[in-house]
Amino acid sequence: MTTILVTGATGQLGRLAIDSLLARGTAPGDVVALVRDPAKAADLADRGVQVRVGTFEDPASLDAALAGVDRVLFISGSEVGQRVAQHQNVIDAAVRADVELVAYTSIVRADTSPLALAAEHKVTEEALAAAGLPTALLRNSWYLENYTAQIPVQLEHGVVLGAAGEGRVSAATRADYAEAAAAVITADDQVGKVYELGSDNAFTLGEYAAELSAAANAPVAYQDLSVADYSAALVGAGLPEGYANVLASSDDGLKQGGLLVETGDLSRLIGRPTTSLTQAIKAALV
Question: What is the pTM of this model?
Answer without folding.
Answer: 0.96
